[in-house]
Amino acid sequence: MPTSLELTTLANPLPIELKNTTDDALPNYLTSLKFQQSYLLADVRLALGYSAVLIAGTTFYADYKLGWDATKSWTLWAVIAYFILNGALTYWVWGVEKGKIFTGEIGDTLISIASSVKKHKPIYNLQVQYGKKGEEPQTLKISAPFTRWFDSDGYFVATPFQQWLATEIPAVGKADPKKVDRGSGKGEGKVIDGQQMQGNADSSMTAGNGGARARNSKKGT
Fold it and tell me: Looking at the whole model, is its pTM more than 0.85?
């Protein structure tokens, strides 16, 4: 029986819409494998955002109720605080989070995953940092066309996406060995900081093959 995630469908989707749907699926899969997700990045972002909104709302309400003469002495400081918080929020999103969609751990392994997509290019890119606690993490870059897990009707199919993650990311493959595609030869990612080098996704698979795999997976659900 297909899950609600597998029934996600998009009509004439843009790459960013495909990315957002896929981004939502990735943490769900990892947490189902007992990865412990850290919400620190999201909590800080929400705290900064809500604090800025609270200051703006309080200032507006006070001005409405008490009038400008009664509030002008501290309105300037409220405006300064608002812009400082917004600046901090912008820095946090672009300078700290940097597209991260998952940070967490499983056992003694820490993992951080950031996603990206180029405009008008339906290729899903992941940058994965993983390693034992207290050790220098490795950085792995992998990519694949969205047609690998979206079928021709725009349906998201979970199984091929999970197989791709388990095959390409060692920590995920260790947690879910049944999903590892041992016949793929990997060859889609590149270890940047480690010793192992792998090929490029663009030269190792085509959109047509990815779409066929996604459709076949959907029929089997």
Answer: no
Say what the pLDDT of residue 218 is: 42
* Rama region for 3: left / alpha / beta (φ>0; ψ in -120 to 50; rest): beta
DSSP-derived pairing of the beta strands 123-132 and 138-145 = antiparallel
Q: What's the rounded Cα separation, in Å, for the pair 136 and 16?
A: 32
Contacts of 118 (CB under 8 A, 6+ apart): 15, 125
| Residue with token string 């595609």 | 181
Burial of 27 (0-12, 13-18, 19+ CB in 10 A): middle
**Exposure of 74 in the CB half-sphere (CA atoms within 13 A):** 11
Cβ atoms of 179 and 163 closer than 8 Å? yes
Token pair listed for 139: 């950085």
Residue 106 pLDDT greater than 80, yes or no: yes
